[in-house]
Queue: 3 jobs
Job 1
Amino acid sequence: MVDYFRDSGSIMIATEAASEGINLQFCSMLINYDLPWNPQRVEQRIGRIHRFGQKYDVVIVNFFNEGNAAEARILELLQNKFHLFDSVFGASDEVLGRIESGFDFAQEIAQIYDSYRTADEINQAFKELEEKYADTVSKDMAEARAKVFDNLDPSVRDRLKSYDKQSGEVLNKFEQLLLLLTINRLQGLAEFDGDGRNFVLHTAPAEGIATGRYHFKSSPTEHSRQYRYSSDLAKHVINGAMNADTPQQTLIFDINKSDRVSSRMKELVGQSGSLTVRSLTFKMKASDSDISESYLLSAGVTDGGELLNEEDIAEMMDLRVIDQADDGISIDNELFEGALKQQKVVLEKEVQHRNSRYYNQQEELLESRILDLDTERRKAIRELEKKRKELRKQASRADDPMEQLRFKKKARNLDEDIDAIEDRYRKEKRDLRDNVDDLLILIKQSLRGKRTETELFTIRWRVTT
């Protein structure tokens, strides 16, 4: 059933049996039709789809009966007290495990169900249960959070989503880069408060951009505008950075001044080298639509000859630059060519295989539709021929010549209906064949698509403390 759901289905309805031992990581939504008394069971259900490697944001929907006070309190307890749906990744499991080792949580809730009937009695019982274990939950949640996040590399922390009280204020990687880019590009034009999420634009960098106060992923202040990726100001910032001149310089990165420092960057302290970052665009068209794809290429090397991989360079770009200089050392681009060529080969295969696979699937669908049309044609013709045969029998048995003529005319009309079905089938088949031919052309285009490579920047670097 899991295989069928993954390959063909869109919705799976399952009993509690689906909460253990199966991988539904290809899904992104879980609907809890009923909330079990045992919070560990809810955790198990979520764990089917919210796993390491999940590529999509996971949405959990919980149904509960608003007219049932006990169900409403169970939801409140799970969400607000145990933070089951918004806690640090992995923390709820550890906290619930510790609490369950001290008492049977499900049994206590079941006892509330069995012993109380009125809403007031149920609320009071749940209140006493929450107060009884409030200190334990708070203490264990804090310890679990520390275990998850202390001493982890920034790249690891990025993969663990922290949904605590500040979840609405936490910036993802993209938002962090946009904010840092904005601070850099608006130097001298704007005044930034704190970490930069609130700022005042004193001078408009271009015509049509409003000055004044802006807020980004924070509470709005009086008369402030929301700073968004799609706003005119953000577009100006991004376009300006994309078109900025990037001469070869030596950049000095300081790990003590940086917020995000990986263990790999600590290993490079005191070393220097060079690196390059380029964009690779695969020019492709589907009919008249541009479906080009662009990727970043990066390669680097230390002065000692050690190669830097893409992850190393991405982590270096997280470091804070404290100074830059033109030391006059020329950069030999031949040092990067081997690594860049390898990346290009991998990307080209991925793009070609993905596009070819998509077009092949579309071709198979069209061929399947042609077979379906043929099946429908044969069925319709068989039914009409059966009716025609019966009409001709009736005509041969009729004594009245006028009656014979009427039956023959009806049979003749069926001949015309059969011809119409054949004509319609040939036309639809020809149209589908044309679509298949178009797809074959697109497959050929995707395999022979032109690619353009542009150097974004090439620098000398030095990591210091």
Note: Confidence is low (pLDDT under 50) at residues 87-103, 161-168.
Job 2
Amino acid sequence: MRSVEEQQARVSAAAVAPRPVRVAIAEAQGLMCAEEVVAERPMPAFDQAAIDGYAVRSVDVLGADAIGDSSDAAERDAAAVTLPVLGIIEAGARTPTRLQPKLATRIQTGAPMPTLADAVLPLRWTDGGDSRVRVLRGVRPGDYVRRVGDDVQPGDVAVRAGTVVGAAQVGLLAAVGRDRVLVHPRPRLSVLAVGGELVDVNRTPGNGQVYDVDSYALAAAGRDAGAEVNRVGIVSNDPAKLREVVEGQLNRAEVVVIAGGVGGAAADAVRAALADLGDMEVARIAMHPGSVQGFGQLGPEGVPTFLLPTNPVSALVVFEVMIRPLIRLSLGKREPMRRVVRARTLGPIASMPGRKGYLRGQLMRDEETGEYLVQVLGASGGTSSHLLATLAEANCLVVVPEEIEQIATGELVDVAFLAQRG
């Protein structure tokens, strides 16, 4: 029986990232940048107002600070600093303006500063006058002004290679004038389900038939991992037909997942149908659930192809442990594994001897101590691996080392976060 780590190493070695592609920045969100985006122009490209107010020369409003300190209204009025207001400069104004001494001009946020003005006087520090403005407090040179290149200078790296493009990166790309960017695309994942007992969810199962759960669940898991998913759905057991469909998917995908037929005669039939596409090994892995699983690299390009158990819970756990990290590596992620924390158990846990356990659980946090606490869902020890409802309730997997069979209440265990439900 092969260890989980050995199988993960075999699978990870097959990871091949798709060639970077250039996409519109609106389509780049969530993908990893594959180039160093260097700014060619400063940002901002001109001195601009950081807030709404009055563009002034700071030397013209120096005395206003002393006025604000006086408690006598008559003294404040006598020494008041007032400036004539000449018009308004709006955001987007393109005509250069020049501010003469002892004058002010209204200015909007983002509008270009007039020549000779060195500060913006906030509206709240004035009486808000239109033709003349009474200054209640002075400003220093550079106050509330965004200078040329304050944010980005020409030659600065705006977005680094290896950065996941989020909202801020999209904004930066737009700010430096880039409409397209080179990214690592999502690996393409094809999901098939094999089994004569399967019917799609839009049909009523007959005697001995069940709904195709696997292809829907695994396709959703693939999207969660970051893949571009093609859910092929149910495929015929006929060897020629199965081979034709799989071969077609090998030509269009970076990863292929086949659910069903991983053990016994069914597995032999699937492997025989795919024999001339490459070697598909079905092995026992020291984990539960999902100890029996198949993996090979098929087709001329050696596409990683998986055979997963029919049991939806086992299939999803194998996907989580083996396939999700492969997809994350193909996306260019440096840390393909889920975040793991230490949590204290709220009840006893039993695990299958000699196998690494991945048990469904609910992770919570003590409000007073901040300590993580975890409760295993369903019966542990591998007796409830078919219960899909408990997986739907789980927000984590409790990872139990293969040499441990029993964990007492209150002990610390490793817990892997699953995707958070919104």
Note: The CA atoms of residues 395 and 421 lie 8 Å apart.
Job 3
Amino acid sequence: MKKSVILTTLLCLALVAGAQDFQTEIKLINVPDFNGKTLAKAPAGKSQTLQLARTKFSKPMESYTTLALPSLRLGNIIGHPTLGWDDTDFKIPEGVPAVYDGKWALNDVFTDGDFPVAIYGRTPSDKPLPWGESEQDISCRGRDPHLIMLLDPSKEVKKVYNTRNITITPKDSLFQRVEWAVVKDGVLYFSECASTAPNKNSQGYYIVAVDINTDETLWISKPRTVNSSNFLIVDNSIICGVGGSGIPDYIYVLNRYTGVKTREYWIPTAASWFAIGEDKTLYVTLYDKHVAFKIIK
């Protein structure tokens, strides 16, 4: 335990020392309505989405950290960020500030899109918890990440979005955080997830699309659409998943231009990670196995 605390403390000091001063204004995301209102229409010829055809389920995994395919190891899944699964292998890419504006700590970096996207949360506290350790001793990652930084290499000034400006139905008291984010063709897509299961009354667990040129929100999906660790953008479609106590477990296909759900596929347990293998097959990790789908365009 002492060794872990020392390593984590040294890492925290390195993060602060490596902080950069980004002269960036936080853009507030304006969502005039919620509950799945589409604010943009799909361009001509972009309304058709892909279909999935299940090919197989794997055998139950021997442990939670292994999968049948080496390329789909938990924590090293295709398309997963490279910052490491925990603080022991937390590596910050060059050009990414470890601390933003002196109070936001880096939580993760997503590299699936046109350029990297980083998310930040509040700086972990050094105040001891009841059992003696502090948040900083446990992990240096930002807590409750809801700040998204666009790291476009072609622009000197990077944009930062504060997702807390999203209007959510007041009865929704769930704890929200950004789970995944990607920029594709000038649009930022990100998923907002909660810390508890997406029960039937939850207004959380949705995907938001923002035009990064105008900062206008294009659409926000229906609630209880996504709580998977990531989602994939394939052609005109977004592939994501939701599940847990209170609602059935499904994989959903959304139109990436409108956020409208077009197809759904039942799975026995909630989806965690999505990846497309070298064989062009879609693999989805579940609680104790993975399922494979053929992508039909």
Note: The CA atoms of residues 120 and 139 lie 14 Å apart.
